[in-house]
Amino acid sequence: QVHMVESGGGLVQPGGSLRVSCDVSGLTFSTYTMAWFRQVPGKPREFVATIRWDGEYTFYKDSVKGRFTISRDNAKNTVYLQMNNLKPEDTAVYYCAAAAHIVPTSPSLYEYWGQGTQVTVTT
Predict the structure, then answer these.
(1) C-alpha to C-alpha distance for 76 and 118, rounded to whole angstroms
(2) What is the pLDDT at residue 102?
(3) Cα-to-chain-centroid distance, residue 24
């Protein structure tokens, strides 16, 4: 069975940094595009960043470009999202997702999801 487990969320002040991680098992990790999405109550799940299976291509939501960096370690079956200069509007539950052989930004095109980790940015 596929398991995807996020960690690293927490409470941080505006301007601070966090790195969230997603540990993956049960699939051939090096063949899957990985992505991060986020969601706040009452709003649709929102694309944040994606990284191709080989790590050679990344793409970001405009509002996080230059602040967030997605990376992966295929030897560890782990994907990361480094979040710098965090803003209150970054507050959300952050989810990792996996898609085989494509690099989508729509949540409907991702096959597997983690349970999410809460990131709260506040004074």
Answers:
(1) 23
(2) 86
(3) 12
